[in-house]
Amino acid sequence: MFFLPRDPVSIILAAIIGCLLLQPAPLPAEDKGSKPGKNDRLWALEKLGKPINPEVQDTNWPRAPIDHFILQKIEKAGLRPTRQADRRTLVRRAYLDLHGIPPTTGQLRSFLEDREPDTWKRLIEELLASPRYGERWGRHWLDVARYADSNGMDEDIVHPVAFRYRDYVIASFNNDKPFDRFIIEQLAGDLMPADTLEEQRRQTLGVGFLSIGPKMLACDDPDKMRRDIVDEQIDTTGRAFMGMTFGCARCHDHKFDPVSIEDYYGLAGIFLSTKTLTKYSVVARFHQHDLSQDEHTRRRGKIATLEKHKADKTVPEEEKKSIEKEIQQIRKDLPPVFEVMGVTEYPTEDAKVHLRGDYQTLGKLIPRRLPKAIAGQDQPKMPSGQSGRLQLANWIASPDHPLTARVIANRIWHWHFGRGIVTTPDNFGHLGQHPSHPALLDHLALLLIESGWSIKHLHRVIMNSSTYRQSSIADSQLKKTDPENSLFARWKPRRIESEVLRDSILFKSNRLDLTMGGSMLTEQSHKYVDRKKQKEYIKSMRRTIYLPVLRSSGYDSQKAFDFPDPAVITGKRNVSSVTPQALYLMNSEMIHNSSKALAEVLLGGTPEANNKDRASWLILHLLGREATPTERERGEIFADTYGKDEKNTAWAAFSRALFATNEFLYIQ
Fold this sequence. Notes:
47% helix, mainly alpha
């Protein structure tokens, strides 16, 4: 919590400190230079290089080319990488990393008993082929896409079909959709040619990306509302795909990055030529694509014609009754409506520069175009009959774009290790951090492009490396020299995210519902959120990714463990350790019910076992390792203190204690 000072001296000091905090991030020692200016060449805008594997002293350690880039810097620092983690640790790490739920005891044993040299590679392939993978890694992208099932802001209207975009993201990861196509569909899927209705649906689902951002729907100034929506779309597109803060140029040339105010309004024309709302007066309404089957459309048209005729006052009552019967017959077995939340085209419009960001004070007219500092002078011609979104999308998804592949490769690395090669994943500009391993980042970006933009290929490359398989148990000198693990010379344990925690507890207590897709919302379009229903949503056994995300109020359990603000792009979640987390793990209804359920599973599966064996079973089941003799003895004593008639209560309490251990809460 921050407190604003009131005395003049403190105010001045606070202002000075604030200015210092806003200075550009310090560069690595070898990259230090003068204060960045908008005319300085930005490292991220340089063409992707084809780095050569660096020479290293320990030639036995690298398993993959990326290991050479990591080891070179470790050796240069006079250090050594950490030894490989044991097989139990690795299998649990892989499951939590790719699926977001730990392995079963059977899966763990299967891996440990398989001594073939390609066991690890086959495990990765099995995990990538599972639908659980898309649910886990789709959630990462939803952080970036600022996904929610309601608008939030001034009018918290439900988005009952937003779930289709969420399911689209999950399916895209499961199907390993090429990332360049994934980009194009999210910016211009409605403009792509389609041979079938199913193909048209799949592509149009992607443009939910531009539509699901928060909006001030009760704004009484339609012109301002349109421009604020455009600003949010420009800022999100720039940061999500290119790691560039284009939104900073709305009022003036970017203070640090080579983005001019004219670049901004060149992009603004593209999005002003894009329809997001169908009604801009209070309360505004979202545009939705109706992609229902032809039969549904035909029947609805017939119903509309009949209802219009029925409303005619000159029609006799007997005929009206006959018309109503016909309407009911047509509605019988009517195919379901298939509506998609997403943008569409407006009449094209170039934008004038808004002086100081004020749309009522206009300057020079800027034709729709791409940012010149990145795209150069030779740009694609914007069509007169389309917004230009498709040209923008194709440019961003081009293998020649200097930012796109670097940004997503860095995101993938960050989501695997908890730390990016660039530690500011949403900002590759001058105020962001420089890459710790620039050649490695280029290597990964090129691998991605050369693989046909396959995200799964990047997983294989990273997870089969020695870098990924390191132990978290490192010597003290290494931790002292590199406390932030910027060298990646060890595995740095990190706490599992809020969704992984909830899903893992439900899964291990045999309560998790693995049904995929669909929505839990019952409200109709453009209706207000019923916050009371959140208490029912959180009681669901579905995976957490399927719980409705309401911007006006989140779930306490999710907020306690740093669920991101769905109103803004989040490429890097906060990680805190606060008292409410411990209170939740001790007292929440979900924890108590899951502990009781797990105790029933334990007692039902081991009716003749003694308490030492039951303690061993629980520790292996939840922590993925054998219990020590001391733990077995303590488990026995713990259960015996409750008495023979309170077995369920005893083992529920023991389970609850294990759920709260760091071994369960952290990816080691």
